[in-house]
């Protein structure tokens, strides 16, 4: 069985390699990428609106721009495939006042949703933007339904939400939205081009964004690939380039704990150079250091994988164990940051990462739809005895046994004397054989920071405080909307609504 | 570059010259639809159909990108490549030809 562990270990290291490579990219670039004056630029093409990035924000912007009467609209995507983080996300979509809430008798409102988000934003979220998004979230949901997205017939109530208001696509993935929206874009006449990288803005004499410099035929990671291509925009540019969680240097500049050792759930293209260019132009950076890591991820698979949802479900009735000591080391349902930091402290004698393990009674673990999958795809394990488990993960078995006995006492008493975990959801759920086990390691997940925008998706200039003419931004590339911590399922509505808003602003609607 | 080291069943392409695939010029990569001159994506998708809970893991017609993943993201004629899926998943693709 030890080869399984080796496999995990090897993958883990490979994962770091990918992150490391991505980190090197943006620093090779700035010399190439920067804004230029339109004087002397030979335009290759003139269109109405250039949209940079093909996630929720870019796709919604494209459809709405067409519906508002824009003629030539093109979405430029630097990667070989369309969809960015949106195409790999969990497909969870929050909106207030939906038909399903009515059907199920759930009372909700824009105000309630904003209040929930303000609370988790810890006082520094942007109330005006949150309200604008909540007010239009139903329109965005409708856009996906019209395009053919299909949702589970039930609502979910995610952490921090005071009522059930979250739809989820039947495929439990954002691709259940990006694929229909991409098709809809094309149906309505939006052009979509892959392997085209945004490299800078082209400005007229007054400083207005007149177009963009692109690199056509770009191969991700090969910074000298492709050829410059200048596109003039009659109406404007919408930046929908997403977050920067894959850019290790940039994220470490904000939060030095987010080294290459910390994994990442994001698509590889989330490197942030589009945001950088807006800063160069004068955009206001907001909340750059608020970067969220997911403590529910596994080093045995890439990205979000199958384990994340499995462990989110199981944490309340599981124990997380440091393999050096055989002891618990955190409250398994503390906030995301507390847990991510605690996991990062789990190390072997040389100080190298030693991903901790989560142990669950298989009886409870198997209630989650991914339980079978984590076993099938070799990212989770099932053991009949504690001895086998301890041997497999090289955990001191005596200490582990003692820890489990102690913890089961807390389950019985309803009080966790070790870490103060709320034992409400662990009631009656003792840790007993057979055991389900996954390895844990935090992954950088979401960037709350980015460029400051208005409720019209205009990008503000840090000197004048006025909107930069011809420039709009939407989605994860913008900052400050959610404050310190974004609630789950609130990014899809934000990205889509602000993408639609950008299109409306450009078209004067 | 210039090294053949390709698939034996592409022999005829090598015989008719590099530009039979390299439609953008010899020193640069072929366009994303170059392979489609000979290979039909619908046929490929049918050939790699998966059943039940694996239905959306069809590499030629999958959950995230449908039938649009450029061939060269998973296959390399002159270099070995892993399936794109393996960046996040541990699915088995036993019949994958580099
Ligand atoms: C694994 C995972 C699960 C998630 N689950 C959920 C969930 O269930 N619900 C929820 O609300 N949120 C979720 N989130 C968050 C949410 O998915 C993202 O915040 C959202 O997808 C961002 O959308 P976007 O349109 O702003 O950017 P993206 O979807 O990332 O799109 C940006 C695109 O721009 C491209 N790009 C970047 N730079 C350039 C450039 N220079 N030139 C050209 N193109 C460029 C990128 O390649 C990318 O395709 C999840 C995130 C992840 C990573």
Automatic annotation (TrEMBL), chain A:
Gene3D superfamilies linked to this entry: FAD/NAD(P)-binding domain, Succinate dehydrogenase/fumarate reductase flavoprotein, catalytic domain
Cofactors per UniProt? FAD
Residues in the signal sequence? 1-33
What's the protein called, per UniProt? Flavocytochrome c
Q: Which residues cross the membrane?
A: none
Q: Which organism is it from?
A: Ferrimonas lipolytica
Q: What keywords is this UniProt entry annotated with?
A: FAD, Flavoprotein, Oxidoreductase, Signal
Q: Where is the FAD-dependent oxidoreductase 2 FAD-binding domain?
A: 48-492
One example GO MF annotation: FMN binding
Mind telling me which PROSITE patterns this protein's record contains? TAT
PANTHER family recorded: FAD-DEPENDENT OXIDOREDUCTASE 2 FAD BINDING DOMAIN-CONTAINING PROTEIN (PTHR43400:SF7), FUMARATE REDUCTASE (PTHR43400)
UniProt family annotation: Belongs to the FAD-dependent oxidoreductase 2 family. FRD/SDH subfamily.
TrEMBL record, chain B:
Q: Which keywords accompany this UniProt record?
A: Electron transport, Heme, Iron, Metal-binding, Transport
**Major subcellular site:** periplasm
A single GO CC term for this protein reads: periplasmic space
- Enumerate the spans annotated as Tetrahaem cytochrome domain: 14-90
Instruction: Name its cellular compartments.
Output: Periplasm
Q: Which GO terms describe its molecular function?
A: metal ion binding
What cofactor does this protein call for? heme c
UniProt-recorded name of the protein: Cytochrome c3 family protein
Name the species this protein comes from. Ferrimonas lipolytica
């Amino acid at each position: 069985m030890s080869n399984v562990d080796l496999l995990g270990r090897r993958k883990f290291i490979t994962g770091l390699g990918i992150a490391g490579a991505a980190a090197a990219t943006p620093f090779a670039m700035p010399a190439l990428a920067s804004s230029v004056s339109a004087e002397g630029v030979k335009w290759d093409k003139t269109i109405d609106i250039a949209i940079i990035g093909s996630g929720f924000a870019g796709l919604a912007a494209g459809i709405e721009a067409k519906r508002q009467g824009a003629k030539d609209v093109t979405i430029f995507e630097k990667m070989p495939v369309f969809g960015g983080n949106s195409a790999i996300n969990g497909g969870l979509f929050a909106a207030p006042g939906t038909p399903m809430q009515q059907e199920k008798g759930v009372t909700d409102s824009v105000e309630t949703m904003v209040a929930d988000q303000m609370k988790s934003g810890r006082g520094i979220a942007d109330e005006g933007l949150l309200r604008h998004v909540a007010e239009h979230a139903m329109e965005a949901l409708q856009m996906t339904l019209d395009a053919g997205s299909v949702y589970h017939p039930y609502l979910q109530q995610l952490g921090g939400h005071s009522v059930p208001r979250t739809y989820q696509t039947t495929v439990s993935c954002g691709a259940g939205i990006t694929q229909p929206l991409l098709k809809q874009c094309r149906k309505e006449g939006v052009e979509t081009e892959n392997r085209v990288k945004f490299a800078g803005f082209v400005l007229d004499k007054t400083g207005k964004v007149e177009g963009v410099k692109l690199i056509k035929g770009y191969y991700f990671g090969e910074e000298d690939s492709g050829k410059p291509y200048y596109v003039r925009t009659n109406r404007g540019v919408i930046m929908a380039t997403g977050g920067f969680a894959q850019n290790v240097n940039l994220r470490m500049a904000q939060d030095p704990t987010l080294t290459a050792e910390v994994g990442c759930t994001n698509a590889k293209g989330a490197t942030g150079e589009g945001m950088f260019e807006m800063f160069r132009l004068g955009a206001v950076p907001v909340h750059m250091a608020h970067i969220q890591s997911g403590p529910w991820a596994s080093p045995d698979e890439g990205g979000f994988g199958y384990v994340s949802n499995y462990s989110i479900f199981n944490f309340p009735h599981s124990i997380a164990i440091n393999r050096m000591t055989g002891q618990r080391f955190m409250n398994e349902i503390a906030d995301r940051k507390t847990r991510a930091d605690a996991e990062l402290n789990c190390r072997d004698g040389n100080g190298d990462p030693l991903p901790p393990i989560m142990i669950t009674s298989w009886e409870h673990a198997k209630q989650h739809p991914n339980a079978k999958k984590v076993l099938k795809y070799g990212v989770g394990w099932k053991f009949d005895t504690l001895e086998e488990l301890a041997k497999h993960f090289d955990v001191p078995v005596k200490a582990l046994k003692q820890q489990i006995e102690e913890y089961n006492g807390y389950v019985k008493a309803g009080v966790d004397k070790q870490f103060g975990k709320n034992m409400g959801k662990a009631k009656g759920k003792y840790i007993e054989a057979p055991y389900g086990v996954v390895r844990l390691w935090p992954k950088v997940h979401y960037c709350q920071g980015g460029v400051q925008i208005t409720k019209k998706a205009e990008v503000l200039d840090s000197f004048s405080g006025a909107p930069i003419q011809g420039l709009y931004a939407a989605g994860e590339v913008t900052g400050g909307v959610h404050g310190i911590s974004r609630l789950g399922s609130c990014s899809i509505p934000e990205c889509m609504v602000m993408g639609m808003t950008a299109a409306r602003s450009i078209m004067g609607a | 570059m210039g090294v053949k080291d390709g698939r034996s069943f592409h022999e005829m392409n090598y015989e008719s010259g590099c530009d039979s695939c390299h439609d953008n010029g010899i020193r640069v990569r072929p366009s994303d639809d170059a392979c489609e001159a000979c290979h039909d994506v619908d046929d490929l998708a049918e050939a790699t159909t998966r059943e039940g809970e694996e239905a959306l893991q069809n590499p030629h017609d999958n959950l995230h990108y449908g039938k649009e993943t450029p061939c060269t993201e998973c296959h390399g004629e002159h270099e070995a490549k892993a399936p794109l899926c393996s960046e996040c998943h541990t699915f088995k693709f036993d019949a994958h030809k580099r």
